[in-house]
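EI: anyone free to look at a 728-residue chain?
SC: sure, send it
EI:
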Amino acid sequence: MFAELLPDVLDERELRDSLARSGGVSGEQLKAAAEEEEQRSVILGRAQDEESAYRQTVSRTRVEGRIFRVLVAAGALVLLMLLTVWVACGWSEDLKEVLAHDRAASASVKGVAGKGLALPLFMVLIAGGLAFVTWCVFYLLSPGVRSGVPTAKGRQLLISVGLAYGLLALLGAVWVGIYPTEVAWQLQHDRPLDNAGGYTWGGWFTLGTLVLFAIPVLWLRRIARIARSDESSGQSLSLAHRIAVLAPQERKQAQRQAEAEWRLAVRQALLRFLRARISEQTERVFSTVLEISDAPGLKRLHAGHEHVRTPADDQLDMISAGMENGSIALAGPRGAGKTQLLRVFCKVDEAESAGQLSLVESVPVVYDRREFMLHLFYKLCDRVIKEGLGTAQEAERHKRAIRYLQTRSDEAALSAGWRNWSLSAKRATSLAQQPQTYPEIVDSLKRFLTRTALELDEENRRVVIGIDELDRIEPAATARTFLNELKAVFDIPKCLFVLSVSDEALRDAELAPVGRRDAFDSAIDEIIRVEPLDQMTAEKLLGRRVVGLPVPFAALFYCLSGGMPRDLLRTARAAISYVKPGEPHPLAGLAESLVDRELNRIANTAGGSVGPAELAHFFRADLIAENGGLGALGGAVHQQAGAVGDRSRMGATLANRAYHLDTVLSIFTTPLDRDSIDRASDPAFPGSFSALARAQREIGTADTLARSTLQRVRTAWSLPVLPPIPRV
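SC: here you go
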């Protein structure tokens, strides 16, 4: 597959255009680098999840196909046996009648069919009745069957059909041993069979028939052993259920789909490697014309293997290495990359989590403590079963208890009667399992996690559980309540919890007075700050997604996004959409398009005709023109907002937004040469791109500081001076 996909990937338009523009690395060099044994193993290793799923699908399809063929063979054997009994029984009985009346030798087809039909019908009815009774008994006695558990239903089907098959085999073997020998004896002696007649070798027919019927059973046992070795514990019995409901065509379709997903994963891994190799081996491009019209790497919103390490990664690795258990909080503004860092640390996008068993779950906006804890418990059980740990059977029991409410009933009846008189007595008991309370759920989860963590500790591994999007819970008091309830499981040995929290929570914890423990401070052991990207890291991240992106355009995206990874990729995605194939886009034109996009976004946030949100109307294109352009818009907003209350604060924020966009537009619409770009890329320069991105992040949270930063940047670029923020 790798050898087949590599030339096709190298022929992608994205890579061809980049190689034609850069000239720093050739296609042959890329091919040779990808074909290195070590690098090829790394690329294929990034698709191990899909490869494992494909191999499991192929193995399961092969096993199910074998089972299907064996079942077809067993069914054909049963039909052949019934046909043999039918013909032999009818022939024997018809011969007896013919020979008893001294009529000329031969039995009619009609007579054979009529006299022999009753016996196979009787056998089928007896076997069908046994299967039906067994099916009903299973349904009454098994809670799993009534709840629709595939494993229990598979066991029900397997035993019901197996008993019917065994009874048919036993009865058929007896009649096959009797009637053919009777037919042979009567044909040889030309007289009806008497008590002293018959052949003794009929027992060999019986034994041979039993052996034939035993062969499919032995085959099925061998296939079941293969299934148990390939599948997780407790799932092999559900094969019978899947065989009963899945057609061969559907199994082939599942195999083709799994192969397609594997090919796609390998292709994406190859593209990631080739993009990174081109970015690393090609000199930075300082062109002010963008020729890239398609960037498939920007279409993937989450790509763990394209993660760029930041100081927060190193800090998290260092702190977690020194902790056996406990909790770590990842705090930072929204869009700073907390989720990506959490997924990378928990190795969510890797096939094997070396040294740990990982799980990442997101907190719902509408939070219910019991439902979330049950959901976390259920997912943890799934992960343990997938890993095949010693606590897998316990995990199956917990999953069943979480999914189904068990009801048990017991009934006994006694009756007696004589003629028209009767006496009866009846006793019934019904027990319904009470749903677990929240403390019971927490206690069960702690005990299960403790046993699982101790088992993993013997293999020098530990449990890592990530809780994502904690900052989505509103209001903040609900998030504190959630943490207070969740911290009950934070003290499990060899179990580490990593959470993403909001900036507000971080400030509450770090600014708490000495001697007073805040809710976050008491629940979280360590706090790691996830900062926005610096310019070089932002360029590196974009280089993983867009091949050959010029530095001026990366700087433009960085200044507009404030260094937030999520906004950085959104801005780059929007910018690429403005470029048409064969029509290069200049930097100034693209800057104007992106600024107009941002102005439209702000104007569309106006919530009404009165109140602070009214001020967003000033960002409409017609009002910007009426107020003297974007540079003069800030003064108009300040004047309309006044100097009192929330309107003044909203006015300062919107005015800073206007000044920031005007500064970006002024810098990136002037001719930029390599020297000016190098100077602005230095963080020590007052008008650096880093300072402009920092001002964007300060708007809305520290508007006075943002205005000061914007003023320094504008002074460094010889732009008009900004007015100070009016006193509130």
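EI: The chain has 30 helices and nine strands.
SC: 👍
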